[in-house]
Amino acid sequence: MSKLPTAHKFIDLSDYGRPAARIIAISLKNTGFTPIHVTLAFILSGLISVICIIYGDFWAAAFFLIFKSILDAADGELARIKETPSYTGRYLDSVADIILNAIILIAIWHISNSNIWATVLAFIGIELQGTLYNYYYVILRNKFNGDTTSRVFENETPQALKGEKQSHVNILFKIYKILYGGFDKVIYALDKNASKGKTTPNWFMTAISTFGLGFQLLLIAILLVLGLKDYIIPFFIVYSVMIFVFIGIRRKLYSA
Asked: Which of these, 117, 129, 138, 206, is most buried using a 10 Å CB contact count?
Protein backbone atom coordinates (compact mmCIF):
# COMPACT_ATOMS: atom_id res chain seq x y z
CA MET A 1 0.00 0.00 0.00
CA SER A 2 1.77 3.11 -1.23
CA LYS A 3 1.80 6.38 0.62
CA LEU A 4 1.58 8.23 -2.71
CA PRO A 5 -0.67 8.11 -5.78
CA THR A 6 0.80 6.33 -8.80
CA ALA A 7 1.85 9.45 -10.71
CA HIS A 8 4.10 10.60 -7.89
CA LYS A 9 5.66 7.33 -6.82
CA PHE A 10 9.44 7.38 -6.92
CA ILE A 11 12.16 4.78 -6.42
CA ASP A 12 12.79 5.03 -2.70
CA LEU A 13 16.28 3.66 -2.07
CA SER A 14 15.66 3.62 1.66
CA ASP A 15 12.51 1.53 1.28
CA TYR A 16 14.04 -1.65 -0.13
CA GLY A 17 12.42 -3.66 2.66
CA ARG A 18 8.85 -2.77 1.63
CA PRO A 19 8.06 -6.00 -0.31
CA ALA A 20 9.12 -8.17 2.64
CA ALA A 21 7.33 -5.78 5.01
CA ARG A 22 4.09 -6.26 3.09
CA ILE A 23 4.41 -10.03 3.31
CA ILE A 24 4.91 -9.78 7.07
CA ALA A 25 1.98 -7.38 7.44
CA ILE A 26 -0.36 -9.55 5.35
CA SER A 27 0.60 -12.61 7.38
CA LEU A 28 -0.30 -10.73 10.58
CA LYS A 29 -3.56 -9.23 9.29
CA ASN A 30 -5.88 -11.72 10.94
CA THR A 31 -3.85 -12.22 14.10
CA GLY A 32 -3.75 -10.42 17.43
CA PHE A 33 -0.44 -8.76 16.54
CA THR A 34 -0.66 -4.98 16.32
CA PRO A 35 1.62 -2.42 14.67
CA ILE A 36 3.00 -1.62 18.14
CA HIS A 37 4.09 -5.24 18.52
CA VAL A 38 5.97 -4.98 15.22
CA THR A 39 7.60 -1.74 16.37
CA LEU A 40 8.77 -3.50 19.54
CA ALA A 41 10.16 -6.28 17.34
CA PHE A 42 12.25 -3.83 15.29
CA ILE A 43 13.58 -2.33 18.51
CA LEU A 44 14.70 -5.81 19.56
CA SER A 45 16.29 -6.41 16.14
CA GLY A 46 18.18 -3.13 16.43
CA LEU A 47 19.47 -4.01 19.88
CA ILE A 48 20.60 -7.45 18.72
CA SER A 49 22.52 -5.76 15.88
CA VAL A 50 24.31 -3.60 18.45
CA ILE A 51 25.39 -6.68 20.41
CA CYS A 52 26.65 -8.27 17.19
CA ILE A 53 28.63 -5.14 16.32
CA ILE A 54 30.29 -5.03 19.74
CA TYR A 55 31.27 -8.70 19.53
CA GLY A 56 32.54 -8.38 15.96
CA ASP A 57 29.95 -10.60 14.25
CA PHE A 58 29.41 -8.18 11.38
CA TRP A 59 27.43 -10.51 9.11
CA ALA A 60 24.90 -11.08 11.87
CA ALA A 61 24.91 -7.34 12.60
CA ALA A 62 24.18 -6.62 8.94
CA PHE A 63 21.31 -9.11 8.95
CA PHE A 64 19.65 -7.58 12.01
CA LEU A 65 20.17 -4.01 10.76
CA ILE A 66 18.41 -4.87 7.51
CA PHE A 67 15.75 -6.89 9.35
CA LYS A 68 15.17 -3.87 11.57
CA SER A 69 14.55 -1.78 8.43
CA ILE A 70 12.06 -4.34 7.13
CA LEU A 71 10.15 -4.41 10.41
CA ASP A 72 10.29 -0.60 10.52
CA ALA A 73 8.25 -0.62 7.31
CA ALA A 74 6.06 -3.53 8.39
CA ASP A 75 4.50 -1.71 11.36
CA GLY A 76 3.13 1.01 9.08
CA GLU A 77 2.00 -1.54 6.51
CA LEU A 78 0.12 -3.47 9.20
CA ALA A 79 -1.51 -0.27 10.43
CA ARG A 80 -2.78 0.45 6.93
CA ILE A 81 -3.93 -3.12 6.29
CA LYS A 82 -5.81 -3.25 9.59
CA GLU A 83 -6.95 0.35 9.12
CA THR A 84 -5.65 1.28 12.55
CA PRO A 85 -3.43 4.35 12.05
CA SER A 86 -2.26 5.90 15.29
CA TYR A 87 -0.13 8.76 16.52
CA THR A 88 1.05 6.47 19.31
CA GLY A 89 2.63 4.17 16.74
CA ARG A 90 3.95 7.06 14.67
CA TYR A 91 5.79 8.70 17.58
CA LEU A 92 6.94 5.45 19.18
CA ASP A 93 8.48 4.48 15.85
CA SER A 94 10.35 7.77 15.56
CA VAL A 95 11.50 7.83 19.19
CA ALA A 96 12.78 4.25 18.87
CA ASP A 97 14.63 5.11 15.65
CA ILE A 98 16.60 8.03 17.05
CA ILE A 99 17.57 6.18 20.22
CA LEU A 100 18.66 3.11 18.25
CA ASN A 101 20.64 5.31 15.87
CA ALA A 102 22.57 6.74 18.83
CA ILE A 103 23.23 3.30 20.30
CA ILE A 104 24.35 1.87 16.95
CA LEU A 105 26.81 4.71 16.41
CA ILE A 106 28.15 4.34 19.94
CA ALA A 107 28.74 0.65 19.22
CA ILE A 108 30.59 1.56 16.00
CA TRP A 109 32.66 4.13 17.90
CA HIS A 110 33.53 1.42 20.41
CA ILE A 111 34.97 -0.91 17.75
CA SER A 112 36.52 1.69 15.42
CA ASN A 113 39.26 4.31 15.44
CA SER A 114 36.81 7.23 15.51
CA ASN A 115 36.68 9.53 18.51
CA ILE A 116 33.56 10.40 20.48
CA TRP A 117 33.24 13.91 19.03
CA ALA A 118 33.31 12.59 15.48
CA THR A 119 30.62 10.13 16.54
CA VAL A 120 28.48 12.98 17.86
CA LEU A 121 28.93 14.86 14.56
CA ALA A 122 27.98 11.74 12.60
CA PHE A 123 24.86 11.31 14.73
CA ILE A 124 23.84 14.93 14.14
CA GLY A 125 24.52 14.50 10.43
CA ILE A 126 22.46 11.30 10.20
CA GLU A 127 19.52 12.90 11.99
CA LEU A 128 19.62 16.06 9.86
CA GLN A 129 19.79 13.91 6.71
CA GLY A 130 16.80 11.88 7.80
CA THR A 131 14.89 14.97 8.85
CA LEU A 132 15.38 16.63 5.46
CA TYR A 133 14.24 13.48 3.64
CA ASN A 134 11.16 13.16 5.85
CA TYR A 135 10.42 16.87 5.50
CA TYR A 136 10.27 16.73 1.71
CA TYR A 137 8.53 13.35 1.70
CA VAL A 138 5.77 14.40 4.11
CA ILE A 139 5.17 17.58 2.09
CA LEU A 140 4.74 15.42 -1.02
CA ARG A 141 2.42 12.97 0.75
CA ASN A 142 0.26 15.70 2.22
CA LYS A 143 0.03 17.51 -1.10
CA PHE A 144 -1.32 14.47 -2.92
CA ASN A 145 -3.59 13.01 -0.26
CA GLY A 146 -1.20 10.29 0.75
CA ASP A 147 -0.60 9.10 4.30
CA THR A 148 -1.36 12.04 6.63
CA THR A 149 -0.48 10.55 10.03
CA SER A 150 2.87 12.32 9.73
CA ARG A 151 2.61 16.10 9.58
CA VAL A 152 4.80 18.69 7.88
CA PHE A 153 4.94 20.78 11.04
CA GLU A 154 4.84 18.99 14.40
CA ASN A 155 3.88 22.03 16.47
CA GLU A 156 0.90 20.86 18.48
CA THR A 157 -0.08 17.62 20.16
CA PRO A 158 -2.51 15.85 17.80
CA GLN A 159 -5.86 14.48 18.86
CA ALA A 160 -5.77 10.76 19.49
CA LEU A 161 -7.28 8.62 16.76
CA LYS A 162 -9.81 5.87 17.30
CA GLY A 163 -8.40 3.02 19.38
CA GLU A 164 -5.59 4.94 21.09
CA LYS A 165 -5.36 6.90 24.34
CA GLN A 166 -4.78 10.64 24.34
CA SER A 167 -2.44 10.28 27.33
CA HIS A 168 -0.15 7.99 25.31
CA VAL A 169 -0.11 10.44 22.42
CA ASN A 170 0.67 13.34 24.79
CA ILE A 171 3.64 11.58 26.40
CA LEU A 172 5.16 10.28 23.18
CA PHE A 173 4.69 13.62 21.43
CA LYS A 174 6.59 15.39 24.22
CA ILE A 175 9.44 12.89 23.96
CA TYR A 176 9.39 13.26 20.17
CA LYS A 177 9.66 17.05 20.41
CA ILE A 178 12.57 16.82 22.84
CA LEU A 179 14.50 14.42 20.61
CA TYR A 180 13.63 15.81 17.18
CA GLY A 181 12.65 19.42 17.82
CA GLY A 182 16.13 20.83 17.27
CA PHE A 183 16.67 18.92 14.03
CA ASP A 184 13.24 19.99 12.74
CA LYS A 185 14.02 23.64 13.49
CA VAL A 186 17.38 23.50 11.69
CA ILE A 187 15.93 21.96 8.54
CA TYR A 188 12.97 24.33 8.56
CA ALA A 189 15.30 27.31 8.93
CA LEU A 190 17.36 26.09 5.97
CA ASP A 191 14.34 25.60 3.70
CA LYS A 192 11.27 27.12 5.34
CA ASN A 193 9.37 27.64 2.07
CA ALA A 194 9.62 24.04 0.84
CA SER A 195 5.90 23.39 1.41
CA LYS A 196 5.04 26.35 -0.86
CA GLY A 197 7.32 25.34 -3.71
CA LYS A 198 6.71 23.36 -6.87
CA THR A 199 6.26 19.62 -6.63
CA THR A 200 9.64 17.96 -6.45
CA PRO A 201 10.14 15.46 -9.31
CA ASN A 202 10.58 11.75 -8.83
CA TRP A 203 14.31 11.79 -9.64
CA PHE A 204 14.94 14.35 -6.91
CA MET A 205 13.05 12.32 -4.32
CA THR A 206 14.97 9.19 -5.34
CA ALA A 207 18.26 11.03 -4.87
CA ILE A 208 17.30 12.37 -1.48
CA SER A 209 16.02 8.96 -0.37
CA THR A 210 19.71 8.14 0.21
CA PHE A 211 19.12 10.17 3.40
CA GLY A 212 16.41 7.76 4.53
CA LEU A 213 17.09 5.63 7.59
CA GLY A 214 16.73 2.37 5.69
CA PHE A 215 19.47 3.35 3.26
CA GLN A 216 21.68 4.62 6.09
CA LEU A 217 21.40 1.27 7.88
CA LEU A 218 22.07 -0.58 4.61
CA LEU A 219 25.28 1.42 4.12
CA ILE A 220 26.37 0.66 7.68
CA ALA A 221 25.68 -3.04 7.10
CA ILE A 222 27.67 -3.08 3.83
CA LEU A 223 30.65 -1.22 5.33
CA LEU A 224 30.70 -3.58 8.31
CA VAL A 225 30.80 -6.77 6.23
CA LEU A 226 33.45 -5.24 3.94
CA GLY A 227 35.67 -4.64 6.94
CA LEU A 228 35.42 -0.85 6.57
CA LYS A 229 34.15 -0.08 10.07
CA ASP A 230 36.60 2.80 10.46
CA TYR A 231 35.01 4.61 7.51
CA ILE A 232 31.42 4.55 8.76
CA ILE A 233 31.49 7.57 11.04
CA PRO A 234 33.67 9.74 8.72
CA PHE A 235 31.38 8.87 5.79
CA PHE A 236 28.24 10.19 7.47
CA ILE A 237 30.02 13.37 8.50
CA VAL A 238 31.19 14.08 4.95
CA TYR A 239 27.91 13.01 3.32
CA SER A 240 26.07 15.57 5.42
CA VAL A 241 27.40 18.21 3.02
CA MET A 242 24.78 16.91 0.59
CA ILE A 243 22.11 18.45 2.82
CA PHE A 244 23.09 21.85 1.49
CA VAL A 245 23.38 20.52 -2.07
CA PHE A 246 19.84 19.10 -2.06
CA ILE A 247 18.38 22.20 -0.44
CA GLY A 248 20.19 24.37 -2.98
CA ILE A 249 18.81 22.33 -5.88
CA ARG A 250 15.25 22.49 -4.55
CA ARG A 251 15.38 26.24 -3.90
CA LYS A 252 16.99 26.96 -7.28
CA LEU A 253 14.78 24.77 -9.46
CA TYR A 254 11.55 24.17 -7.56
CA SER A 255 10.74 27.31 -5.62
CA ALA A 256 7.27 28.74 -6.06
From this structure: 129
